[in-house]
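Mods, move this if it's the wrong board.
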Amino acid sequence: METRLTRLETLFTNMGETILSQNDAIAATNANINAQSATIDVLVANIQQLTENVAAVTQSCRG
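Not the wrong board. C-alpha cells:
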C-alpha cells in the first residue's frame, strides 16, 4: 500500500511539473502572439499609408 501511494505521489508530482512547464510555454506563446499582432497592426498602417501615397501620386500625374 505504501509503495502504491509513493508511486501515486510521484506521478502527481510529475504531472504538476509538466503542467507548470506547459503553462510557461503557453505564456511564452501568448507573448509571441501579442508581439506578432502588434507587428501586424504596424504593417497594416504602413500598407494603408502606402496606398494613400500611391493614390496621391496617381492623382497628381493625372491632374
